[in-house]
Design a protein that fits this description.
This protein is of the alpha+beta class and about 130 residues long. It has one domain: Cation efflux protein, cytoplasmic domain (Alpha-Beta Plaits, 2-Layer Sandwich). Helices cover about 30% and strands about 40% of the residues. Strands 4, 5, 6 and 7 form a 4-stranded mixed beta sheet that branches. A 3-stranded antiparallel beta sheet has the order 1-2-3. Helix 1 packs across helix 3. The chain starts with a strand and ends in a 5-residue tail after the last strand.
């Protein structure tokens, strides 16, 4: 299905009559980052200060804290996250794993073998 064309681009569809579709691993990382930040309880990706800051800077920053490895059409994802205080870490991580897997598979057609989540911090609510 997918084969590695270069270090960062993978062919996900080839049709002799129409051409081929290639996807960069950076795109897969952005999809994973966006899906993860949509889960309630996720404060931010590693290296980012907040969801608002990510939105202001643009989509490219969503790949921070995301490591993607694509081999022969199979994707392995590693996410580094900050969670909001008060949310169950196991439940939130499980939701992140499922959302990232579904998003990548639906948008790219690639198969996700695993989604590993590393929590590096907890965002505390500021008292006003």
């Amino acid at each position: 299905m997918a084969k590695e064309e270069s270090k960062n681009t993978y062919t996900i569809h080839a049709d002799g009559n129409l051409g081929e579709v290639q996807i960069a691993d950076e795109v897969v990382a952005i999809i994973a980052g966006l899906a993860a930040t949509e889960v309630e309880g996720v404060a931010a990706m590693a290296g980012s200060t907040s969801k608002d800051f990510i939105e202001k800077l643009g989509m490219k920053n969503l790949s921070k804290g995301v490591k993607v490895e694509v081999l022969e059409g199979v994707v392995s994802v590693e996410l580094t996250l900050n969670l909001d205080y008060g949310y169950s870490i196991p439940k939130t991580c499980s939701k992140v794993q499922e959302k990232v897997k579904v998003a990548i598979e639906n948008m790219t057609g690639l198969t996700v073998s695993d989604v590993n989540v590393r929590i590096i911090g907890v965002a505390m609510e500021k008292n006003k």
